[in-house]
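Incident log, structure service

09:12 report received: a user says their structure output differs between two submissions of the same chain.
09:20 pulled the input from the user's history:
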Amino acid sequence: MNICVFLSAADLDERYTRPAREFAELLGKGGHTLVWGGSESGLMKVVADGVQEAGGRLVGVSVDFLAAKARADADEMVIAADLAERKALLLAKADAVVIMVGGTGTLDEATDILELKKHGRTTKPVVLLNTAGFYDGLKQQFQRMEDEGFLPVPLTDLVFFAEDGVAALAYLEESQGVQ
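09:34 re-ran on a clean worker, output below:
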């Protein structure tokens, strides 16, 4: 399965890097392909290293102004002209999406895929990996949106909240019929 992971390119502490490495190892050992922003820095590097070391493939989609930070030894690397094209290419190459910890770029990517799902423009499963409770506030906000009628479909149809990588991958594999 080609799994797009939206996540930070920032250098983060162990409470985020350790679970990211563990999830990456699960992806690689499971024979999955990581589809990611292509960066050779921060948490993006941690996950790419883990997937590659565990035998998985790497498909990167960088963007023109970040091309100098793109991973040289990815199995495939595409350089998009801008961020909008990058998001479209990431999603086109993926069977499923996992949203890990990140900043405004990750949040933009997350809301974009959820908006596409809300309007029926994609049926790809989406997991929000809530490492160290990072997305507790966002989960609460989404629940409020649902409770107050802002979501035309149930929140559970849009996103699965996973507390760890094992639960995230199990959900994706089940949703895709992977044994």
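09:41 both user submissions now match this output. Likely a transient worker issue. Closing.
09:42 reviewer note: The first helix runs from residue 14 to 29. Residues 23 and 165 are 5 Å apart (CA to CA).
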